[in-house]
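[job 4471] stage=fold_predict status=RUNNING
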Amino acid sequence: MTPYHHGDGHGRRPGSGVDTVSVDASPRVLRRAVTALASLAMVGATFVIVDRVATGQTESRTAEAFQQGMGTPQRPSVDVRGFPVLTQLASGTLRHVDITAEDIPAHGTSVPDHPGHRAGAGQGARRPPRQR
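[job 4471] inference complete, writing structure tokens
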């Protein structure tokens, strides 16, 4: 294929002072470029699919382990966040995991009977003063 020239034969339009673009792309070069881009897209899509499958398996295994370990009657809801999860699994640390469980057995502990008790209250929670 010959380059495209418009105008005076030097790539310039007569009187415009603007250079034109020479196009020299054979069908073989275009085919290779399209094939390379399609291959790259397939690799990326495959990585995303494998990562999502790994996320689902990790969530399922975590829910099962939590249910067995805590003795909950229902399986908890587990949400592993972050992308890609595969790299988190490879490093051995998941950055953010949400677990929602109901009816967790107390196993010999008792719930305080004062009105200020909040289930799941952390270190920042204050207990009401004891009455004497």
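[job 4471] summary: The helical segments are 27-70, 85-91.
[job 4471] exit 0
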